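Dear colleague,

Following up on yesterday's call, I've attached the two folding results inline so they're easy to grep. Please treat them as preliminary; we haven't cross-checked anything against experimental data yet. The first protein's sequence and structure tokens come first.
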Amino acid sequence: MIAFAANSVLCRLALGGGAIDAASFTAIRLFSGVLTLFLLLVLQREKSLIPRKGNWTSSLMLFLYAITFSYAYITLDTGTGALILFGAVQITMILISVFSGNRLHTSEWVGMALAFGGFVYLVLPGVSTPSPLGFSLMMFSGIAWGIYTLRGRDSENPLRDTAHNFMRTIPLIAILIVVALNQAHYSLEGVIYAALSGGLASGLGYSIWYAALRGLSATQAAVIQLLVPVIAALGGILFVAEVITSRLTISALMILGGILIVVLGRYFFVYRQSN
């Protein structure tokens, strides 16, 4: 969770100060992840370094998450961006569960309504309201990450699968570089932030997350991720000199509280009753 929050802080540090453009940040971030994970596979003496595991769908979701994440943070504060991102992640996971045939308990419907109310309040006109574009991009980023997370629950080799997912983003990285070449600008500071985000917070962090998913129930995984916006907001205060506004605080309580009701409601009212 610290790695996930670190991505928000590093991205905001790089893009908020104009140290690098969003496309270059994304390209360096993903490529740094590729290099880091490739070296780890070499050290583990992986027999095949050709991306045969993982899959293209997961790689596409990873790329879409990363690119929309970067562009969203041009206009969003660290805490606000993390709230939108992981709120969208949880809602995505819940909706996929519903469409898969799982019936929601009344408490889960109440939680979803409360979380949605928090999103509505967050985007109402006001000083701290995020830009419509930033909000939309981060929502798409959250949806992509939610799908990527669900697809990793059956991973038998988290490091290998994560590495091969990253490797498959190389053609997309190349296309991104060509398309955004005219708008590219970067500094040493921005490159360092992007490399840290890709190599440590993303490459290693996502491998650990895929490994953790094998020992966590869906409910436990959802609850743990709710820590990320709080950690990211604290990181924004400590490292980016951001402030906590009343709108952000209230919406955070509504969104996180609603999602907590959703993920814990099924455990207390359904699972425990059946046992």
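Below is the second protein, in the same order (sequence, then structure):
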Amino acid sequence: MNGPNRGYITGVDELIERTSVEQVLTHYGRPLPDQTTGEHRMPCVFDESCIDSTYGTLTVNLSDPAHRIYCHSCGVRGNLLTLIHGLQYHTPPSGGRLRGDEFKSAVTVLRSINGNTDDSPPPRQPQSSAPAADHTNTSPADPPPENIPLKDQEKTLALVNLWEDCIMDVAEMSPPAAAYFRQRPWLTPDVCRKWKMGYLPRDERSLMRGMIVYAHQNEAGDILSYSGRNIRFDEQWQQWLADGRPEKKRPIKHKYVKGYHKGLQLYGEQADRLADRRLKESLGKLGLVVVEGQNDVIRLDCLGVAAVGLCSNKASDEQIDKLERIARQAAQGRVVLIPDNDAEGEAGFKELLWSLASRGLTVRLGWSRQSHSGQFDGQQPEHLTDEQWNESILPLLR
């Protein structure tokens, strides 16, 4: 009994060793590495929240078949079979390791990549280079991913007005939450109500209790989902850096509801908002402004600027399509990019600039780490003061 089992495993090991990462990525329609040795970085295929991490990319070792992958954010590591499992199902292995049916399924795909046996499933449909969290693989039998309004789902109907449970008055908040809002004085109660966001107390029955909660709406204004922002993230991040970046203690900045495809939406895309007279004037003079996060959109809105957010530093194909449509319809095909002024924001928005410019749009940068004599290096749009916007940024965009 032991003999055949050892032979089977050995066969799989040999198959793993002779199968290249390029073959696997080609099978799933993913971008290929630029090199054949060393490390390749790609969006994490196991946990959608990893995209919000500074260190959330998946490291793929092109030189070591036994230890192919490791994600610095969710901690998943393994060989080529683990990577196949993530590309196929977008979840980590149950219990941390491939066993049973999960192992057999990955082996079946591995064999398919090396010759398509009779019992092998067909290759998955090609994907774009956008993060896997926002692009679920589909087959002819599966409908494309979509975000259904909470009001149209019986199991989520009670969550539609979750934002009404949020505290919007600083005087009623916990000390950490109050400090967060005082650092952003433009987040007034009126602004919070307009954006359906605020601090959700810890005694609420929600996975996002104790967080800053944001409603995510579609163009019609329907609430699709909520996300939460860790109010202690900034101090936790600094402590994590001081501790030497321990892998298991890395703080999480944003939490999204499982099943919400944030890559299908733009934060602030509501049609009635963009049709507001004040923002129509901004669209006419500057164009459509694109930023990363929710606070960035809200802050620029307070400044009278028509901005939408990716909720990421990378844009999906669907988001790029939507940006092009809105820019052509409302802003004469003009777009202004204002990323977070860090390495990750710069890298992601370089790709976005190229994609939008390739579609014939007029694209400008609102700032960079080097512009304005380096004045805004490391800064985010939400940090902009009225004076900085009106005297430094705006004059160069007119």
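For the second protein, one point worth flagging: The chain is about 35% helix and 10% strand.

Best wishes,
A.L.
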